[in-house]
Amino acid sequence: MTFSSVIRALWLPVSGRWVQIPLIKYFGTACYRCNHLQAPTIFTDVFGDKRSNSTSEACSGINKNTKIDFRKAKFAQQPCLKDELLCRVAEPVIDGRNKVTVVGAGMVGVACANAILFQRISSKIAIIDAFPKKLEGEGMEYCHGSMFMDNPHIDYDTDFCISSNSKVVIIAAGARPKKGESRLSLVQKNTEILKNIIPSLAQYSPDAVFIIVTNPVDILSWVTWKVSGLPVNKIIGSGTHLDSARFRHMIADRIGVAPSSVHGYIIGEHGDSQVPVWSGVNIAGVQFRDILPNIGLETDEENWHDLFKDVVKAGATVRCLKGYTNTAIGLAVADITNAIIRNTQEVKPVSTLIQGHYDVRNEQFLSLPCTIGENGITHVVRLRMTADERKLYQASANIVYNVQKDIKL
């Protein structure tokens, strides 16, 4: 004989009189469409059912053919510990103001999520991937360790709907370059992927800032802008942010100071045609060119030009050694995300629309130093480049556009 067969009703005092409440009414029933336990309390009889009708609306589509899981139905009739333990005062906020969605649970996507979570940049992360088993494994790992990361809320699914109301959407989905394959050769393959996923993501999060990481990042940032319908300030390519970090690290290592004390930028393509702005490199305001006028040129007797060559091939070197690059780009993307979430207006070299800058006439994305905040890119810094640096930047733009112009959207 079961508990429910013995006790079918409860007698409870209400407004000075005893009222008989059926047990099923007290503990509630289950909604089989959204797996939500509808649990009225004693106050339901007194004040009427004032609860939100969102659950009933979600279940309005249930028909006679709806399959009911009777195991769930059985447990729905039993006393619910949560309802006995907690007295609801208000509905919890499901999607916080700093929600970040990461699309792609590969090496790069996981590195982005790691950096954001470990640095406590966001308390709500949603991860989307096309491979459910890999996704579930990654999601479970994050959930198991959530108490060590200040208890962030972590969702993961193959459905884009979990990205809704995101503040930032990070695109890390796409094919990786094979050995000897350039970033630009991936363009058509990854363009097709983004054409399929960007419209849905933009629909679910129309106010989000999109950070594009997938290569070739400059062209795919332009693709995202065209297919999303979002304003250009809302599209940010990770661009040369990582290249600039590599540049500053190698200079700092040679000088013997911290990388953050070195100020300098790589601009242009995130690829082989990237441009070092040697004219602006400085430590504590001391311009390197004031000390070594031909620094970075072929005539440079200290061979700083060779240091830049190492920057260009750094990604390929890491891929050769470990099979892929992910940690540094994850940190770079987290840094951009932090500027958006906290509205810092920090200047970072990222990929944006450069039409009209430095005599570039084509509609394309390339990296320049930009201020970044809650509204995405708010300003583009007007660099004082030398004539040679300007020519190299224009050449980089032409290389990228010659590939971009053949894309069919």
Can you give keywords for this protein?
alpha/beta, globular, L-2-Hydroxyisocaproate Dehydrogenase, Chain A, domain 2, 409 residues, disordered N terminus, 38% helix, Rossmann fold, single chain
Task: Give a structural overview.
The chain has 409 residues and is α/β, with parallel strands linked by helices. It folds into 3 domains: 3-85, no CATH class; 100-237, NAD(P)-binding Rossmann-like Domain (Rossmann fold), CATH 3.40.50; 242-404, L-2-Hydroxyisocaproate Dehydrogenase, Chain A, domain 2 (Alpha-Beta Complex), CATH 3.90.110.10. 38% of the residues lie in helices and 18% in strands. A 6-stranded parallel beta sheet has the order 7-6-5-8-9-10, sandwiched between helices. It is globular. It starts with a helix and ends in a 5-residue tail after the last helix.
Our estimate of the beta-strand percent is 15-25%
Give the spatial strand order of the biggest sheet: 7-6-5-8-9-10
What is the overall silhouette?
globular
Mean pLDDT across residues: 85
Under the CATH scheme, which architecture of the largest domain would be assigned?
A: Alpha-Beta Complex
Number of strands: 18
Contiguous runs where pLDDT drops below 50 for at least 5 residues: 1-8, 22-75
| Biggest beta-sheet profile | 6 strands, parallel
CATH domain class of the largest domain: Alpha Beta
**What is the third-level CATH name, the topology of the largest domain?**
L-2-Hydroxyisocaproate Dehydrogenase, Chain A, domain 2
Give me the number of helical elements: 16
Give the radius of gyration.
27 Å
Q: Assign the structural class, choosing from mainly alpha, mainly beta, alpha/beta, alpha+beta, or little secondary structure.
A: alpha/beta
**Can you tell me the CATH superfamily of the largest domain?**
Lactate dehydrogenase/glycoside hydrolase, family 4, C-terminal
Structurally, how many domains make up the residues? Answer: 3
Oligomeric status:
single chain
